[in-house]
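Quick note —
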Amino acid sequence: MRVLTRLEGRVPALHALLTRSHARRFDALAPKWDTIRSDVAESRGMLDAALDALGVIAPARVLDVGTGTGQAAGMLAQRFPDAQIDAVDASARMVELARAKPELARVRFDVADGGRLPYADATFDLAVSLLVQPFERELHRVLAPGGWALFCYPMGPGTPIWFPTALVAPRLERAHFAEVRSGTIGSGEWTAGRV
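Predicted structure written out below.
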């Protein structure tokens, strides 16, 4: 999986060809996903530290890209109780399971590809991708001026889908993000771009 993901990251046109294959793979993993990703402490710690470092306090609209069964969406909903949280995943089965969680009732879930989001330009104040390929150009489009796109890989090189800062930062610069910042927590890395 890592080789295909990296290749997609370097040749974005491949993403369109591989989206269905990825969705089918994650549809099959969906019933086991919360068990596979049961230890979310690293993810929560990284997300909180990155948001603190960026000074994100009270965004009105937040987007979770690659939500899976809604783990990051739940963390974002807890951290920002007054924000509208939207979450997307290409896997219909993952979204179905996320929608079924009572604790995520206030989150709006959609089945959508991170590279072709169903939102208008300048809709969100914050977009978060946890353990997902960066869709920097599309996130730049849907972020409002001053909004942040945050990409987190809490397990570093041990993450099946891992895009280190050395790869993400130049992509954000090429996508015309006004500011790029990054940080590490243990072996994990986060990278963010501000519109």
